């Protein structure tokens, strides 16, 4: 009876022998049904590039060219009204940049293009000193967009243009001589930004460009060995955008107490567009999740991120409507409490992106370009 209880049919023996020939990972997958099976990421990769990345850089290029045209009119007719128009157009340019700041990968990292568009943080104000010195020196070579692109990254981006339009001495733009150097320099920065945005866009879309690298991920691909790695990169930049807003732009500026705040550590405080830009940064994450389709594989988590970021932006809008400039706002007790509070949902949104979505898709975040900042 004891021996008979261990009799096994030939069919069961054959099945057991077949399992022994399978790779351990395959057996583990069967024994661990909770382990995620990666879906086909290809359609979403294409959707993110075509609906989020490329339209964003097109908008940036158009906005920069529009700003150049308006500043040129200011140079020919330096009036308060024309300076006001140039500053209003600058707000549109800030919106366009803040919507693509998230895409810190591939073409944006080539030739320091990201820094050419947005040199920040400017530790020890090195870039600001370069801009001031250039205006004083009136370097004529810097009035060529192509030559300006070869100079220091601090001289040719959004923050250099902010100083031209809003910084010390900017009032001369409305009362000074026709075609002043400062005014021409501002127009040149705008054109240089348009050229850089064009270069990034072309490197994405050209034959065998960065988009094709993502579409054709595989063992022989120099950048992406799998479509999963492409998804990891998009999730990484989404996570880094939230982290940049939370840790670098907000917490590093407001600190733990109003009296210890460092408001000038946040970008775009001269133009009063710190909160405006942050809102567009956070909208870019939501756009990538929804319009781009990044959250389509994990709709529950995508809705959670959208909820956290929309709540944050509603709170920021209320602060933005207050009359105090950023450098005064963060020192006020009630405003500081509100800004400190929104660090919590931002941390939640970042954790969902970094941990929960990746885990559900069977992916890992890998290198974080903000580490060490």
| Level-2 CATH architecture of the largest domain | Up-down Bundle
Mean pLDDT: 90
Low-confidence stretches: 1-33
Shape: globular
Question: What percentage of residues falls in helices of 4 or more residues?
Answer: 55-70%
| Computed structural class | mainly alpha
Can you tell me the CATH topology of the largest domain?
A: A middle domain of Talin 1
CATH superfamily of the largest domain: M75 peptidase, HXXE motif
- Range of strand content: under 5%
N-to-C SSE string, H for helix and E for strand: HHHHHHHHHHHHHHHHH
Main beta sheet = none
- Number of helical stretches of at least 4 residues: 17
Based on CA atoms alone, the radius of gyration comes out at 26 Å
CATH class of the largest domain: Mainly Alpha
Instruction: Note the gap between the termini.
Output: 72 Å
Total number of domains: 2
Number of DSSP E strands: 0
């Amino acid at each position: 009876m004891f021996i008979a209880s261990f009799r096994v049919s030939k069919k069961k023996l054959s099945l057991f022998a077949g399992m022994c020939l399978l790779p351990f990972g395959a057996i583990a997958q069967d024994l661990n049904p909770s382990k995620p099976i990666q879906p086909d990421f290809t359609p979403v990769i294409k959707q993110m590039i075509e609906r989020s990345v490329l339209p964003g850089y097109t908008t940036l290029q158009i906005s920069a060219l529009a700003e150049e045209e308006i500043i040129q009119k200011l140079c020919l007719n330096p009036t308060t009204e024309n300076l006001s128009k140039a500053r209003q157009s600058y707000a549109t340019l800030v919106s366009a940049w803040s919507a693509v700041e998230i895409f810190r990968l591939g073409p944006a990292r080539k030739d320091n293009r990201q820094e050419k568009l947005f040199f920040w943080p400017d530790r020890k104000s090195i870039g600001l000193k370069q801009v001031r010195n250039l205006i004083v020196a009136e370097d004529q070579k810097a009035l060529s967009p192509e030559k300006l692109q070869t100079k220091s990254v601090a001289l040719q981006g959004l923050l250099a243009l902010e100083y031209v339009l809003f910084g010390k001495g900017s009032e001369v733009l409305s009362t000074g001589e026709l075609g002043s150097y400062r005014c021409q320099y501002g127009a040149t920065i705008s054109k240089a930004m348009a050229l850089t945005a064009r270069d990034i866009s072309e490197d994405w879309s050209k034959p065998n460009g960065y988009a094709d690298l993502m579409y054709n991920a595989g063992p022989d691909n120099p950048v992406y060995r799998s479509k999963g790695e492409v998804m990891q990169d998009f999730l990484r930049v989404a996570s880094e955008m939230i982290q940049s807003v939370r840790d670098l732009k907000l917490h590093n500026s407001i600190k733990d107490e109003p009296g210890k705040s460092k408001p000038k550590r946040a970008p775009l405080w001269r133009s009063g567009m710190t909160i405006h830009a942050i809102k567009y940064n956070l909208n870019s994450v939501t756009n990538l999740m929804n319009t781009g389709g990044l959250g389509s594989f994990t709709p529950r988590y995508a809705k959670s991120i959208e909820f956290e970021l929309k709540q944050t932006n509603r709170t920021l809008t209320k602060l933005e409507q207050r009359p105090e400039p950023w450098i005064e706002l963060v020192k006020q007790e009630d405003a500081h409490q509100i800004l400190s509070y929104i660090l919590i949902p931002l941390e939640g949104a970042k954790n969902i992106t970094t941990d929960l979505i990746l885990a559900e898709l069977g992916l890992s975040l890998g290198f974080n370009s903000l580490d060490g900042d």
